[in-house]
From TrEMBL:
Cofactor(s) this protein requires: [4Fe-4S] cluster
Family: Belongs to the anaerobic coproporphyrinogen-III oxidase family. HemW subfamily.
Gene3D superfamilies (alphabetical): Aldolase class I
Top-rank taxon: Bacteria
Lineage: Bacteria, Pseudomonadati, Campylobacterota, Epsilonproteobacteria, Campylobacterales
Name of the protein in its database record: Heme chaperone HemW
Species assigned in the record: uncultured Campylobacterales bacterium
CDD domains recorded: Radical_SAM (cd01335)
Residue stretches making up the Radical SAM core domain: 1-224
């Protein structure tokens, strides 16, 4: 069982971001933490959960939450993480001081994922980020100084401002700062965000996407369409293997025994009743298709045993065309950029 914990606080709302986060509700930190703990206790009992394999604390901005609330959360989950393999926390470069990094390490965090996005001042401005180039450099350096072994840096590309020289510098600088993982996301124009009104902020550019992939892959192996690392994020590998996960916090999503569980999105509503959730029982066809998409987007691949005879036939056609390869009963994708097309073809 995997655990996702959502922290919905940020110091600014970035104009491209559609994640559930609030910039003016920091006074609700204690109430939110209390509600989240209530949901956690209720759900571990309900689903008879004894142990979590991996934890991912995401957001929003977990480094925006006062450390005393993170301590309360860790005190609550500690009986369930005796043999945990990895605890990741997301952080923004401007709110993750050296002391904060030391504190989260002491709490048991083993991996920090920084929302660096770029080191380039003009691009940071373009993305509406509050942090500076130096904040990015200092955060990654400090993580390594306090002894955090697994450090990831996020990069957003296919922005109107991007070019090869800019992206090359961003990637090389991140790699020079001891990161062993990069998540490189193509800018998505999300509904209900300021960027939705200016879609020209995104510049579709397959050549630039290939450039980013090639450049990062020279140092960090690609293991999913947006992820590269000598250390692969165990929590995400769990998602892609379709393992069960519990999601706690407002807007968190879980999936247990083929039932998807959605927590309330609104912050006040969640605080009022954190136990309330919506459930969706997934049918066999949904599960089959999702496993195919997740498998072909990553190194997990797709087990022949989940495919119908017709799907197996189509997968074998792609093996003949050299797009997939087959090993130990698993079909693997050779080019993650073609993942969606391949999945639609095999999964139909
Ligand atoms: C859930 S966010 C939280 C990270 C952290 N709050 C931060 O911004 O530094 C995780 C990552 O998603 C990526 N992201 C968010 N919105 C995106 C979008 N519209 N397009 C591409 N990547 C996006 C960013 O790289 C971000 O670092
Ligand atoms: S990208 Fe990160 S900091 Fe910006 S609004 Fe989204 S969660 Fe908050």
């Amino acid at each position: 069982m995997l655990l996702y914990i959502h922290i919905p606080f940020c110091d600014v709302k970035c104009p491209y971001c559609a994640f559930s986060s609030f910039v003016d509700k920091l006074d609700l930190q204690q109430n939110y933490t209390t509600a989240l703990i209530k949901q956690f206790k209720y759900d571990v009992q309900k689903h008879n959960i004894k142990e979590f394999k991996t934890i991912f604390i995401g957001g929003g901005t977990p480094s925006q939450l006062d450390i005393k609330y993170l301590e309360q959360i860790f005190n609550t989950i500690s009986p369930y993480i005796k043999s945990v393999e990895e605890i990741t926390i997301e952080a923004n470069p401007n709110s993750s001081s050296k002391q904060w990094l030391q504190d989260v390490k002491d709490l048991g965090v083993t991996r920090v994922s920084f929302g660096t996005q770029s080191f380039h001042p003009e691009k940071l401005k373009f993305l509406g980020r509050k942090h500076s180039r130096d904040d990015g450099i200092n955060a990654l350096t400090n993580a390594s100084l306090v002894g955090i072994k697994n450090i990831s840096s996020d990069l957003i590309y296919e922005c109107d401002i991007d070019n090869e020289a800019l992206l090359k510098e961003d990637i090389e600088l991140a790699l020079s700062l001891n990161v062993n993982h990069i998540s490189a996301y193509s800018l998505t124009i999300e509904k209900n965000t300021p960027f939705y009104k200016t879609p020209e902020k995104r510049k579709d550019n397959t050549n630039l996407a290939k450039f980013v992939i090639d450049k990062i892959s020279q140092k960090l192996p690609m293991y999913e369409i947006s992820n590269f690392g000598t250390h692969k994020c165990k929590h995400n590998l769990g998602y892609w293997r379709y393992e069960d996960y519990l999601g706690v916090g407002n807007s968190a999503v879980g999936c247990i025994n083929n039932t998807r569980i959605y927590q309330t999105k609104g912050l006040n509503e969640y605080i009022k009743d954190p136990i309330k959730s919506k459930q969706e029982i997934l049918n066999t066809q949904d599960i089959n298709l999702e496993k195919i998409f997740l498998g072909f987007r990553s190194v997990i691949g797709v087990d022949i045993n989940i495919l119908s005879p017709k799907q197996q036939k189509r997968a074998n056609i792609l093996v003949d065309e050299n797009k997939l390869y087959f090993q130990d009963n698993i079909f693997y994708n050779k080019d993650f950029l073609l993942a969606d097309e391949i999945s639609l073809y095999v999964g139909q």
